[in-house]
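step=predict obj=Patatin n=93
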Amino acid sequence: MGLEPLYRTLESLCDFEELNRSNTHVSVVATNVATGKTRYFENRDSGLVAPMVAASGSLPPWFAAVKINDAWFWDGSLVCAAPLHHIIETHTY
């Protein structure tokens, strides 16, 4: 069962296809469990999916790490308390 119920809930509340087509820039941040490096997932790149959003809020020890491709991720605040610099750097007018 795992995180599938959470993914279904997120998908029922958010139209990820529409979000990924949108001109609005959406970015979520997660921490790679193995490397400790910050990773930004964005709708401007290959698109956002429910596991990316879940990973950005998976704060240990209460929530399990989320597997995305071949890596495991936890909440991005573990290494980046205020990821605003990324939003400012990638902002377009």
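step=describe
The chain has a mean pLDDT of 87.
step=end
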